[in-house]
Amino acid sequence: MMATRIWVPKLFRYSSDIVTVVVLAEFYTGIFPDTKITDANALVVMLEMSGQKIRLLNGGDMFRPGPAISLMYLTSSKSEVESLYSKLIENGKALMPLGEYPFSPKYGWVEDWYGVSWQLYSGQAEIDKYWIGLTSGSGEESMCGWLKDRYGVSWQIVPSMLDKLMAESPRVTEELMKMKKLDIRKLQEAAQFRH
């Protein structure tokens, strides 16, 4: 029988009279969509952020977060990256300013007021990374986000919001049928047309 495994990032936060992990958790639930506290006490808070569990732990002064480890938030929405960045940068600092970069049309790396490092991406970055990696060598592109890697294994590389977009308009499916590698922007544009 195969053991079930799950990775749960744990953030240690030094405790003080002002900032506890409960305050930190409430800050994040107020900023990030689909984020909730699933368990809490004075020492430990479990957060769930879009299905990813994160444990926050009150520690001593020797435990401080830093930019060597970052939490990455991937979204297809430039405006969501802008909104999150503006909230996280308040009393924090920019590690890479919000802007357009070769790997993402909207990216920012910020250390929030609590010292936690966040990298915020929008757009094609993740789809492009997997597409390029899996088709390298003798991989083959196919239609509708499908490809075959150099070992003959077929993969479909799709954005996480594809089902939602397809439910919004039949034009999304029509546009998807024309594509090899999926283009999130074009799919979002197609979703704007409702029959």
Q: Write the H/E string, N to C.
A: EHEEEEHEEEHEEEHHH
User: What is the CATH architecture annotation of the domain at 1-64?
Assistant: Roll
Mean pLDDT: 83
Work out the strand percent: 25-35%
Q: Spatial order of the strands in the main sheet?
A: 1-4-3-2
- Measured as a percent range, the helix fraction is 25-40%
CATH topology of the domain at 1-64: 2,3-Dihydroxybiphenyl 1,2-Dioxygenase, domain 1
CATH class type of the domain at 1-64: Alpha Beta
Low-confidence stretches: none
CATH superfamily of the domain at 1-64: 2,3-Dihydroxybiphenyl 1,2-Dioxygenase, domain 1
Number of helices, where a helix is a run of at least 4 consecutive DSSP H or I residues: 6
> How can the largest sheet be summarized?
4 strands, mixed
Rough shape? elongated
Radius of gyration: 20 Å
